[in-house]
């Protein structure tokens, strides 16, 4: 990464066939408009001050702490000083955390920044240098530690009552099988064996977002993969199940805080597969 100009914005994505994404980036000034993911965003600031609005307050991340942004919580991102900031971030599906915790409500770290030492250590294990490959077993061990560190750092859950993890998981799997066409909540309910509104509630509790939002995010995952392969915006949008390019662009900008064209420009040659 040292060959990159220090005051030019860039994003380096680490290739992975798993259900999480690692990035390292440098932002000189303003990086991201308000947006939200359906994944956890967990990471650390390497240098500078990383400022972001989160749950109604301005937060400031510096080296030594851990950022934990809950799924579907709106946030932005910009430099807190004139020197810019560099950071590494892990975007991890709540479903992975669920598989480890056995269907417990998602851990919620209230303030977006934690100084819990176990959580910091678990995060660092999953965020080595971008050119450091991780073995599958190494990743799985680190994911186990991260899930339990999140649970401990979040404290007791505020959620109570019964929920059906297996039904919600069946609905989530069905969404993956039918991304290219419109879906209804009634259809998901039929395949999950749960009534519509109980399923909708359970899905939010267990996976951090609504069924439709989850479907949209999986379509955007496919769009990004197609863009880095060189596909035009319009064909990527249609292949992923969006009605047209503008439909995809609206969702992309709301999700990542920047347009698809700007996102693609910021990718480093290594992230693009050195095409």
UniProtKB/TrEMBL annotation:
InterPro entries from the UniProt entry: AraC-bd, AraC_XylS_family_regulators, Homeodomain-like_sf, HTH-like, HTH_AraC
Annotated protein name in UniProt: AraC family transcriptional regulator
Stretches assigned to the HTH araC/xylS-type domain: 169-266
Xref: PROSITE patterns: HTH_ARAC_FAMILY_2 (PS01124)
Key words, A-Z: DNA-binding, Transcription, Transcription regulation
A single GO molecular function term of this UniProt record: DNA-binding transcription factor activity
Gene3D superfamilies: Homeodomain-like (1.10.10.60)
Listed SMART domains: HTH_ARAC
């Amino acid at each position: 990464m040292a060959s990159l100009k220090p005051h030019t914005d860039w994003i380096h994505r680490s290739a992975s066939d798993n259900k999480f994404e690692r990035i390292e980036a440098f932002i000189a000034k303003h990086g991201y408009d308000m947006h939200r993911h359906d994944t956890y965003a967990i990471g650390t600031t390497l240098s500078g001050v990383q400022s972001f609005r989160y749950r109604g307050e301005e937060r400031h991340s510096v080296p030594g702490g851990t950022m934990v942004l809950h799924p579907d919580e709106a946030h932005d991102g910009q430099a807190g000083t004139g020197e810019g900031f560099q950071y590494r971030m892990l975007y991890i599906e709540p479903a992975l955390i669920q598989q480890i915790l056995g269907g417990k409500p998602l851990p919620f770290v209230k303030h977006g920044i934690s100084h819990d030492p176990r959580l910091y250590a678990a995060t660092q294990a999953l965020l080595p240098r971008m050119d450091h490959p991780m073995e599958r077993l190494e990743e799985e061990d680190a994911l186990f530690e991260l899930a339990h560190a999140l649970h401990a750092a979040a404290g007791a859950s505020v959620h109570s009552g019964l929920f059906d993890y297996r039904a919600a998981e069946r609905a989530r799997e069905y969404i993956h099988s039918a991304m290219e066409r419109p879906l209804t909540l009634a259809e998901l309910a039929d395949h999950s064996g749960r009534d519509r509104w109980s399923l909708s509630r359970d899905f939010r509790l267990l996976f951090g977002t609504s069924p439709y939002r989850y479907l949209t995010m999986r379509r955007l995952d496919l769009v990004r993969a197609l863009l880095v392969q060189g596909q035009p915006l319009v064909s990527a949008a249609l292949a992923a199940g969006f009605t047209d390019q503008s439909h995809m662009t609206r969702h992309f900008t709301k999700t990542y805080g920047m347009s698809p064209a700007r996102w693609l420009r910021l990718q480093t040659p290594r992230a693009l597969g050195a095409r």
